[in-house]
Amino acid sequence: MSRTQPGVTGPATPPTEPAMSPLRRHRLLDAIWRTPPGLGRLGAVNHSIVGARFMMTAFVFFAIGGILAMLIRAQLARPGHVFMPPEQYNQVFTMHGTVMMFLFAIPMFEGLAMYLLPKMLGARDLAFPRLSAYGYWCYLLGGGFIIGAMLAGVAPDGGWFMYTPLSSSTHTPGINADVWLLGITFVEISAIGAAVEITASILKMRGAGMALRRMPILAWYFLVTAVMMLVGFPPLILGSILLEVERAFGLPFFDPARGGDPLLWQHLFWLFGHPEVYIIFLPAAGVISTVLPVFARHRLVGYNAIVLALVAMGFLSFGLWVHHMFAVGIPHIAQGFFSAASMAVAIPTAVQIFAWLATLLKGRPRLDLPMLYLLGFFFIFVNGGLTGVMVAVVPFDWQVHDSYFVVAHLHYVLVGGFVFPLMAGAYYWMPLVTGRMPIYHLGRAAFWLIFVGFNLTFLLMHLTGLLGMPRRVYTYPAGIGWDWLNLLSSVGGFMTAIGFALFAVDMLMQRRFGRHAPRNPWGAESLEWSLPLPPPSYNAASLPPVDSREPLAAHPGLGRALAAGQHYLATPRHGWMETLGVEVVSGRPDQIILLPRPTLLPLWTALATGLCFLAMLLKQYWLVGAGAALVLALALFWLWSMGMREDPAPLPIGHGESALPHPGVASQPGWWGMALLLVADGALFGSLLFGALFLWVVAPGWPPPALLGFSPWLALLALAGLLGAPLAGALGLAALRRGRMGACAALFLLGAPAGLLGAGAVAALPLRHGAPPTSHAYAAAMLVLALYVALHAALGAVMAAYTAARCGSGHVSALRDLAPRNTLMWQGYTALCGLAALLLLQFWPWMAAP
Amino acid sequence: MTGLDRLPGVVVATLAFILWSLAFGLLYVAVSLGCAWGWDRPAWMGLSLQRWVLLGVWAVHLAVLGALLARSWRGTRWGDAEASFRPVLATGGLGLALAATVWCGLPVLLASDCL
C-alpha cells in the first residue's frame, strides 16, 4: 500500500473466498502485516515488535540500575569504606533511582501493554502504531542520553527527586542536573504517547461484543494506569521545564529571594511522584489478577469489585502527594487530609488482596513457577503495604523521615509490588512470545535467591532506619550499631543480583532450549491464548466475537475457528491492514480501522526531537529552533500521509455485518487521540495554574505592585485572536456539513492569522511593565503562562492552515471531517486556556492592586 | 429512568470520585487561603471563618454524594456477575466516594486551624 490510504475504488463487497485454506489466508495476511527484514526493521511499527523492544530495553536498563545498586551496597558494606568518593556515590544513587523509576518500571509497563493488549482484546494492532514506534525511539534516545552522561562522568547527582535549591544552578553548576531534567522530559514524551495509545486502543479496538463489562481484567488495570499517566506525568514535565528555565535563563520560580519557593518543586514532583507508585503497581497487580486465577484453577473472585477498586485507587492516589512532605511545615489540618487519604487508599488495595486470597481459597492452586513468584509477591508487598500505613501516620513519619526505614518500605512496595508479579508474568507469557515452555529448575533457584536475598537486604534495613541511619550518606562511623546490618544488607543485595542474573539466563535458555509450547499451555481463558504460539504478525486470521469474560472457557475451539477464518475480517482486501473498531461501552463493531504500514518517519522524528534536547543541553538555542521546525515538518508530513481522498462505503466484516472504514466514522481513534492528548495538556496547564496560585499564597510580596498593570488593547487583541480562531473553525465545520468545501477551506485559513494574532498579543502581555522575567517569580510565572497560550495559539494556526490545505486536497469531506474537528478541538482548548490566562494576567493584578 | 441510571457504571463511579477530588481539593485550598488571609480567628459561635468554610465545603459534598447514592440505590437491580457490573460500579462507586469524603474530611472536626 502507498503512504496514502487508497480510496475505496473496488467493489462495495470485496471478493470473498469462503474456501480459502488457512495456509493461504496466513500467507496473504502475513504479506500485508509483516515487517521488512534487515534495515527495514528500523521502520517497524507492529505492536509485537515495538512492545518486545520496549521490554528488552527496559530489562537492559534494569540490569544497569542493578549494577548501580551493587555499587551502593559495596560502598556501604563496611563503615568508613572508601570504595568510591562521595561525588561519585551521589551520582550512583541518583542514577539508580532514576534508571529504575523512569527507564525500567514505566517503559516495562508500556512494553507489556503494547505487546499484550491487541492479543488480549481480539485486535490486530494498537490504535496508533507509528506513535508507539516514535515513543520507543524517544525512550531509547532519552535513556541513552542519561546513561551516556553517566559514562562521561556528568550524571545527575542531586537524588532522583532533584529537590531545589540543591538542584538549582547555584548549588549544582555544570550540566549534571540539566541531563536529568532534559533526559527525563524526553523520556516522558514516550510515556505520554504510550498512555494515549493504550487508552485509545482499549476504548476503541476490541473484539466484537467485548463490552466494558466483559473486558479482560488486565485491560482494566492498563486503562486506569494509562489515564493516571495522562494526568500524573504532566506536573513533572512542567516542573522539569520550570527548573531548566530557571537554571538556563534565571527565571526564579524556586528562588525565595526573588519571590519563588523551593517547595513548589516538591509539590510538582510529588504530584507526579506518588501516583507514579500506583502507576507502577497497578499493571503488576493486573498481572496477578490475570495469572493467579489460571494457577488457582478458579476464575477471579470479585471482578466487579476489583474494577471499582481500580477506579477508586486511580483517584485516591492523587490525594497522597503531601505525605512525602509531612516534614516541611504544612498546617496540621492539611496534613490530616493527606494522612487520611494515605490510609484510605489501603482499602481498595486490600480489596484486591482479599479477592486474590478468595480466588486461591475457592480454587485448587498448583504451585507452578509463576505461582511461586506470586506467593513471593504476597509476602513482600503486604509487608510493604503495612509499613506504608505506618509512614502515613504523621508522628511516626516524622521519626523515620529520611531514614533507611523509608528506603526499606519503598523497596518492599516497588520490588514486591512490581518486580515479583512481573517475573510471574514473564514465566507465564514467555510461551506466547517464544513458543517455548519454561525450564523449571533455573527459575526456582532464581526465585529463592531473589526472595532470600531481597529480605536479607531490606528487612534488616527497617532496623537500620529505626536505629537512625539517614538516607543518601556515602559512609558512616563504626560502632553505632549499623555495621553488621549494613554488611548483611550488602550480602543480601549481591545474592539478589545473582538471582536476577540467573533469571536472565533462564529466559535465554528457555528461548533456545525450552520444549515447544502447545496452544494454550496453561489452560487459560483469555483471548491471547487462542493464537498460534508464537503469534503471527497479524495476530489472528479472523477476529473473535466475544460473549463472555472467559471466551476460551465458553468456546474452547475458538483458536481453530479463528485460524479457519470463521469470524470477523477474515478476507484480506486491497492490501489494507484492517482491524475492528467498536463502540466504547457496548463493544458493538462500528468501524474498520485501517492501520499504517512500517515507516522510518517515527525514527526520523525522534532523532529530530532528540536534536532539540541535545541542543538545549549544550545551550545552542538556535539549533533548538531548527530542531523544533524539523519536528513540526516531519509531523505534518506524517499526518498528511494518512487518510482517504474519497468517501468510503460500508464494507462487509463477517457474520453478515458491515461497517465503514474509520475515516468515515466520527468516533475514530484519531478523535480520541486528540481528546486524550488534551487531557494531558490540560493537566500541565492546571499544574501551571496551581504553581502560580501556590506562589501567590505562600511567597511574600506576591504579586509585586511594581509589576502590576492593565493593558486593555492588548487584552482585547488577544481575546479577538483566541476566540476568533475557534469561531472561524466552527463556521468552517458548519460550511463543510452543508457541502461548501471552498468556504470551509477559507474559514479555516482565516483561523490561522487569528491564532497568530492571539499568540502575539498574549505573548506581549507580560512585557507591558518592562521588568525582566528574571526580576521576580511573578514576572517569570506570567511569562510562562503567556508563552504556553501563545505556543498553543501558534500551533493552532498551523493546524488551521493544514486543515485548509486538506480541504483543498480532497482529504476532507462532510463524512471525512477528522482534521477540521480536531483542529477545532485544539482551538477551543486554547481559547479556554487563554481566557484563564487572561484572568490571571489582566484581572487578577487589577483585583490585587492596592 | 433518571439521567444517572442511563450513564454507564464506570462513568458514574468516575463522577463520584471527581466529586471526592473536588471536596479534597477545595478543603486543601480553603486551608491554604484561610491560613494566608487570617481566617483562623474566632468569628461566629466560637468557630473561625476558616472552620465554617471547611465545614460548608465538606457538608455540601457529603450532601450531593449522599443524594446521588440514595437515587442510585433506589434504581439498583442486582443480577449475575455481568449484570451486576453496572450497579456495583455506579452504586458502589458513589458509596465508596461518600465514605472517602467522610473519612478524608474528618480532620475538619479534629485538627487545629493553622498550626
UniProtKB/TrEMBL annotation, chain A:
It catalyses: 4 Fe(II)-[cytochrome c] + O2 + 8 H(+)(in) = 4 Fe(III)-[cytochrome c] + 2 H2O + 4 H(+)(out). Pfam families: COX1. One of its GO terms (biological process) is respiratory electron transport chain. GO terms for cellular component: plasma membrane. Its main location: membrane. Gene3D superfamilies: Cytochrome c oxidase, subunit III, four-helix bundle, Cytochrome c oxidase-like, subunit I domain. The chain crosses the membrane at residues 50-72, 92-116, 136-155, 175-196, 217-243, 277-296, 303-324, 336-360, 372-396, 408-430, 442-464, 484-505, 598-616, 622-640, 675-698, 710-736, 743-765, 777-805, 826-847. It is a multi-pass membrane protein. Belongs to the heme-copper respiratory oxidase family. This is cytochrome-c oxidase. It comes from Teichococcus rhizosphaerae. The lineage of its organism: Bacteria, Pseudomonadati, Pseudomonadota, Alphaproteobacteria, Acetobacterales. The gene is ctaD.
TrEMBL record, chain B:
PROSITE patterns: PROKAR_LIPOPROTEIN (PS51257). Keywords: Membrane, Transmembrane, Transmembrane helix. The keyword Transmembrane helix applies. The chain crosses the membrane at residues 12-39, 51-70, 90-111. This is Uncharacterized protein. It comes from Teichococcus rhizosphaerae.
